[in-house]
Amino acid sequence: MTNYFNSLPHRLKVQELGKCDFMNSTEFSNGISKLQNKKIVIIGCGAQGLAQGQNMRDSGLQVAYALRQEAIDNKRASFINATENGFEVGTFEDMIPTADLVSNLAPDKQHTQVINKVVPLMKKGACLSYSHGFNIVEEGIQIREDITVIMIAPKSPASEVRAEYLRGFGVPTLIAVHSDNNPNGDGLELAKAYCVATGGHKAGVLLSSFVAEVKSDLMGEQTILCGLLQTGSILSFNKMIEKGIEPSYASKLVQYGWETITEALKIGGITNMMDRLSNPAKIEAFKLAEELKEIMTPLFNKHMDDILSGEFSKTMMKDWAEGDKNLLTWREATGQTDFEKTTASDVKISEQEYFDKTTLMVAFVKAGVELAYETMTLSGIKNESAYYESLHEVPLIANTIARKKLYEMNRVISDTAEYGCYLFDHACKPLLSNFMKKIDTNLIGKNFNDTANQNVDNFELVKINTNIRNHSIEICGAQLREAMTEMKKIVLN
């Protein structure tokens, strides 16, 4: 992999790439007090904007929405989202001049346009918050010096930001203060209060940097969080159909299998996920995952290199300028896949049956999570950040597939994630062509244990267990999950 510590553009402040410190729960003892009785105005009321706004209001903060005049006049989805949920809505000109904190939750591709309109309207000394610092890091936008700029980045789709809050929990969150914009020195206190209001403090918080958040976020989204789940879904489904598995059953096994498998991952890491398999199946899944990692390593490295160098953002922004020509074409193609068009059966599948019949999918998860983590940490991203952007967020993405398959996953993730997902998927499927030729229904579609040799080499099993449990992501994850004392189950037996 290229050594970007020497070659990144100077403006990216490479030393910030590895900045990421776990925050103790006691650091949030002041709760929302820093934002109490402050006027918070959210820009955009899409999925993320609505979820964060609802959480903050339920936490006792004053929240309103600023929308474009045309969105109000034409009663667009953002206007309906806000008004039907009882929020005050107004134009930028009406709402922003009196706001104490303006939260920019517009789509990434609109950030620079929105910021150029919003900042001149902001009162002196106000705060501007982001949940993804793409336009600061990738586009180099500069914010007026009297404005405090912070980031509160929940590590999940918006649907889970809201759902986890309602469960009494939250989602892991990265917070940061833009080093060039902290005139009053209170940026961190503002970010912490915002994080408490959205529930993130209950799930684990990392004090990060804009650079580290953007680069790690892009990498996790493109590889394991979206890209490999899309690739794995299509390849697994197609293989089952090729081998004669009933289509609606195959559809259900994939659609709901990811959620079941990764629920075990969320609670106890790769160790717990692999322990749900029989010993013969665990050995086989381990070997498949090692082979997958070897095949996909060059692709993961390419994505990390392109993200760090800015090549990915440059390519994507070119597509933005062309009206999302490529993205919309790829989105349509995804919607036309056989997996997406096949309705899932209503047949009952037990929790253990999902594990017994999806050895291949378990291998995909193990390979993708470990490889994303390894690639990020080798590039200089700290272990904790790499963990949240790989292992912990996978179950949250898997939940979206369970709702409406790949369409739902791509609908609720960011536009940058969707674009990167398609790039990865289109490159990964051909790479795995020869690998998939040897896959049969004992690995996907039927119970592996029905035909497996039940003799297990104890020496081999001990070696594999040691390898799994001593991986850096398992050590890091065990420490971080200790902070998640209020975690709730999603998949109920």
Features:
nine-stranded mixed beta sheet, 493 residues, alpha/beta
Task: Describe the structure in brief.
The protein is of the alpha/beta class and 493 residues long.
Largest sheet: 9 strands, mixed
Give the low-confidence spans. Answer: 1-15, 487-493
Assembly state of the chains shown: single chain
Ends apart, CA distance between termini: 43 Å
Structural class: alpha/beta
**Count of alpha/pi helices:** 22
Provide the helix percentage: 55-70%
Mean pLDDT: 92
Number of strands: 9
What is the global morphology? globular
Strand content: 5-15%
Radius of gyration: 22 Å
How are the strands ordered across the major sheet? 1-9-8-7-6-5-2-3-4
Report on this model:
Strand 8, helix 9 (about 185-200) and strand 9 (about 205) form a beta-alpha-beta unit. The two termini are about 45 Å apart. The longest helix is centred in the middle third of the chain and has 33 residues, at about 210-240. The radius of gyration is 22 Å and the shape is globular. The model is unreliable at about 1-15 and about 485-493 (pLDDT under 50). It has 22 helices and nine strands. The chain has about 500 residues and is an alpha/beta fold. The chain has helices at about 5, 45-60, 70-75, 75-85, 90-95, 110-120, 135, 160-165, 185-200, 210-240, 245-275, 280-310, 310-320, 325-335, 340, 350-355, 360-380, 385-410, 415-430, 435, 460-470, 470-480; strands spanning about 20-25, 40-45, 60-65, 90, 100-105, 125-130, 150-155, 175, 205.
